[in-house]
Amino acid sequence: MEDSKIIDLFWNKDENAIKETSFKYGAYCFTVANNILNNKEDSDECVNDTWLKVWNSIPPLRPARLKIYLAKITRNISINRYNARSAKKRGGGEITIVLDELSQCISCETDIVSEYEEKELGESIRSFVRTLPERDADVFVRRYFFTESVAEISERYKLTENNVTVILSRTRKKLKNHLIKEGFFNEQK
């Protein structure tokens, strides 16, 4: 079923919306959740929570790209679950490594507290990613948005793991310089 028809089902509060979304995007959302949580049961619960959140948000929202909308919701729910789980000293997963890598560019010490500043930072990062060569942008997004492992990325793009690591390292350095120039990051950090 086309995404626009699925969105119409949600808009009309037709329960088939969840069935169709699960059929088309269930495995995709599970992968997003499991890349963060590395736990089947928690990932399944996050996917179910995604369907509820989408049900409650459409309407009034009408996402332009359903797949990306679902990924963002799944990702946020999964990160919240991961944070709750980590507070209990449980588990592991790729998200720890990803957040550690990104801390070189975006540290907690930047103290971005207002929603406006967060949106500005997000737009600055999106703008930066759009300047990258297509492959480098894809590798960056797969690693830092979808939290795919270096091994998965290297297999997808037929690169060595070392090559992927180098691409990510260089891209993080470029991002840090971009954020310094934009005023989001203190040069002396």
Write up this protein.
By secondary structure, this protein is mainly α. 73% of the residues lie in helices and 0% in strands. It has helices at residues 3-11, 16-37, 40-57, 66-87, 94-102, 115-131, 134-144, 150-157, 161-182. Helix 3 crosses helix 4. The protein is globular, with a radius of gyration of 18 Å. It starts with a helix and ends in a 7-residue tail after the last helix.
Characterize the main sheet: none
The percentage of residues in β strands lies in: under 5%
Annotation field: number of helices: 9
What is the gyration radius calculated from CA atoms?
18 Å
Order of helices and strands: HHHHHHHHH
Question: End-to-end distance, in Å?
Answer: 49 Å
* Secondary structural class: mainly alpha
Instruction: Give the integer mean of the pLDDT values.
Output: 83
Give the CA-based shape: globular
- Could you list the spans in which at least 5 consecutive residues all have pLDDT below 50? 107-114
> In total, how many beta strands?
0
Q: Work out the helicity level.
A: over 70%
Give the oligomer, counting copies of the same chain as homo and different chains as hetero. Answer: single chain
Structure in a nutshell:
The chain is mostly helical.
Give me some keywords for this one.
9 helices, mainly alpha, 189 residues
Write the SSE topology.
Blueprint: H1 3-11, H2 16-37, H3 40-57, H4 66-87, H5 94-102, H6 115-131, H7 134-144, H8 150-157, H9 161-182
